[in-house]
Amino acid sequence: MGVLKIAAAVGVAFVMNAAAIGAASAYDGTKCKAPGDCWEPKPGFPDKVAGSKYDPKHDPKELAKNQSAVAAMEERNKKRAEHFKKTGAFVYDVTKIP
After folding, report:
1. Are 80 and 90 in contact (CB under 8 A)?
2. What is the spatial distance between Cα 56 and Cα 50, in angstroms, rounded to a whole number?
3. What is the pTM assigned to this prediction?
4. Cα separation of 70 and 64, whole Å?
5. Do the beta carbons of residue 66 and residue 57 sit within 8 Å?
6. Is 97 within 8 Å of 80 (Cβ atoms)?
7. Which phi and psi (to 5°) does residue 96 adopt?
């Protein structure tokens, strides 16, 4: 009796998945800019984000923090690589490099 219930559940799940796949492939693409480029904003959402209420307006100071962090990381990696080429030993902590 339990086997029949499991088989029925698997059958229902298979039919539901097939229906979902069929619905996804039924889009006719009438508003596509190019083949495969069918993005459309949701109703009420602007076509262009810049200058709208959805514009994140990133602070240049905050963006500069990321750039300085990346530059510092690259400098540390350069020191590690130079030390490794000279000695053959990798030292993670840059302050311990003589």
Report:
1. yes
2. 8
3. 0.42
4. 10
5. no
6. yes
7. -90, -5
